[in-house]
Specification:
Glutamine Phosphoribosylpyrophosphate, subunit 1, domain 1; 13 strands; alpha+beta; 5-stranded antiparallel sheet
Length: about 240
């Protein structure tokens, strides 16, 4: 699928992760975006935090509930970059530091306790070392909105294809505010990856619904040199 067209077709995918490989086969591509419909969700920005990022209230006076909206979406540990839509970032990093696999670390977590949505926890683990690149994606969600059943899905991409990546997001589509948001279903979506860092970043940002988009983080990692190129776009300025 064309990444831009796929995002344009959904006015509210919620939070999303894109991981892939540029068309020249030289750079790992990462994108993480957040969207919001409530004032509390929209009152956020991304800020740099060491080699990663964290969310922060744009107007602290308007922050009503930080529990599910203030976290570190991106952190690095060794040759790994961890990207998630919640505080499971810290769970994964702590697990890797303790010599656990990331699936073992994630087995301690479930979907978000935000009834009636029970928002999925989506995560990515990107590994770049010595000219080698691979990545994994995870979706933890309820069974069709039933909080008594937790479902865990992990996808591994050992040999990424140049010009291709994968997209996962929290919600299948937008619904009326009185309805529960339906969770992402199916496998990660195979999508195109732009070769230019600016084209990749601007393409994702412009494709997101203007009323609902909040922040975007993108990163390219040179697979041979490890050189990193990152960018943050915040709607709130």
């Amino acid at each position: 699928m064309d990444l831009v067209k796929e995002l344009q077709a959904n006015s509210y995918p919620g939070r999303g992760i894109v991981i892939g490989l540029t068309a020249d086969g030289k750079r790992a591509a990462i994108a993480y975006f957040i969207m919001g419909r409530s004032e509390n969700s929209r009152n956020r920005i991304f800020v740099e935090d060491g080699t990663g990022i964290r969310t922060e209230a744009f107007d602290p006076a308007k922050l009503t509930d930080p529990s599910l909206i203030i976290y570190a979406p991106v952190r690095t540990i060794g040759n790994y970059t961890v990207v998630t839509n919640g505080d499971q970032t810290d769970t994964i990093v702590s697990g890797l530091d303790a010599q656990m696999t990331w699936t073992e670390a994630l087995s301690t977590r479930e979907f978000e306790p935000d009834a009636p949505n029970f928002t999925p926890r989506i995560s990515a683990l990107v590994h770049v070392a010595g000219g080698h690149y691979d990545y994994q994606l995870s979706v933890i969600k309820s069974r069709g909105g039933d909080p008594s059943s937790c479902q865990r899905f992990t996808y591994a991409y050992a040999n990424p294809v140049a010009g291709e990546g994968h997209l996962i997001h929290t919600y299948a589509r937008d619904v009326a505010p009185t309805e529960a948001l339906p969770s992402f279903t199916g496998e990660p979506k195979a999508v195109t990856i732009a070769d230019s860092f600016d084209a990749f970043t601007d393409g994702v940002w412009e494709a997101l619904d203007e009323n609902n988009r909040v922040s975007l983080f993108t990163r390219f990692i040179n697979i041979e040199s490890g050189e990193v190129q990152s960018r943050i776009i915040n709607k709130n300025k």
